[in-house]
Amino acid sequence: MFESGDSSGLADRITAMRVELVGSDGTLTDVESVDVLGALERLKSGCAALQAKVAAEFAAKRRAERAERGMSKRKQGEGISSEVALARFESPHKGNRLLGFAEAVVHEMPNLFARMLAGDLNEWRATILVRETACLSREDRGVVDRELCSDPATLANRGDNQIKAAAIKLGAKLDAEAMVRRARKAVANRCVTSRPAPDGMAYLTALLPMKQAVTVHATLMRDAAAVVAKGDERTKSQIMADLLVERVTGLATATAVPITVNVVLSDEALLGRGSEAGYIPEYGPAPAGLIREWLHDDDATLQLRRLYVNPDTGALTAVESTSRGFPKGLLRMTRFRDRICRTPWCDAAIRHGDHIVSVEEGGGTTYDNSAGLCEACNYAKQAEGWSAKPDVRAPGELHSYTITTPTGHRYRSTAPPLETPLRLRIRNHSQVERMVADILTAA
Predict the structure, then answer these.
(1) What pTM value is reported for the model?
(2) Which InterPro entries did the record assign (predicted)?
(3) Is 310 a domain residue?
């Protein structure tokens, strides 16, 4: 996936230690197995602390160097969290959180840092303490750090919720108004999101003020109980879910949802001969059988768009444009090809059609020079010292390009293969057209 520059001596020693640990012969007694599990957990906590220290020092040096060259404060931090994310095999969004966590632990909470080094607190529980004290001043955060983390016995044997409660309780004692301001500010973050779930399902999540969320849930429970009392065979949970859909969409039933769902499906799976999964943009893979059921839904309106794919590699056919901005057709092809943001380890949805090599540097508005990126990754690659270049590839190979960070580390981004097209030995396409027409007629 990536190629790094010259490794430091410390990186080599860490790699050697990892190889030694992985090479254990596994002949452990039950007692030794438990001891090793505990020792590895403490080692993970210590490694997380060292990662935080390295990340914070890296960011401080980069900002200081840019400040000496007269760069604005906003530009001093550009792209740093994305470098951290790539180095840790994480998305840019999580890289930003990891860097913020690192700077808080190293610069503001030395006792917490010591507890992590000693293996007393893992990264997640340390994150809880950092998160729950984020609204406090540096001085008050230091008090929480001393009160809860200076003595390892204070938080010993406490679970996640207990640690969270202790931080909130002490924070409220130190600065109650800050906690109130945080709660008021949180209302501005209310939102509704969706994300994939197993088995063709999805999670619809609403982040609401507590009183509103409790009211919505109580109302659905009350009305679902009334439906159950009338003899409905659905479970109470199923009825609550259906009521939610009906009331949000205004439809008579939860099944008749008039909305466009784009699906990429191979012709072999479409024609009922294959079981290869299809792909739903911003959702992920879906079983071919389930998609065929959707096509036969009485409420479905079908529209087919053919994509021409290399049958051996799954690479999408290339197209070009002479305009500076990506035309809709070319952008659509890029989205079909890339599916999600092309930055390694980023799972975000595509928001921008990006020139891999910018127009200012001579890059053309071509299929090969295009990449689908999320907003954060597109802005990150514009920071000082970042560059990208399409890879040389033979016709039919998957699209790929190489990202180079300011440190010289290189990361390769390769487009995922699309669904394999059906191989038919025919003289013309009339047979395929008739087969597709039969599918549409049956639907």
Answers:
(1) 0.71
(2) DUF222 (IPR003870), HNH (IPR002711), HNH_nuc (IPR003615)
(3) no
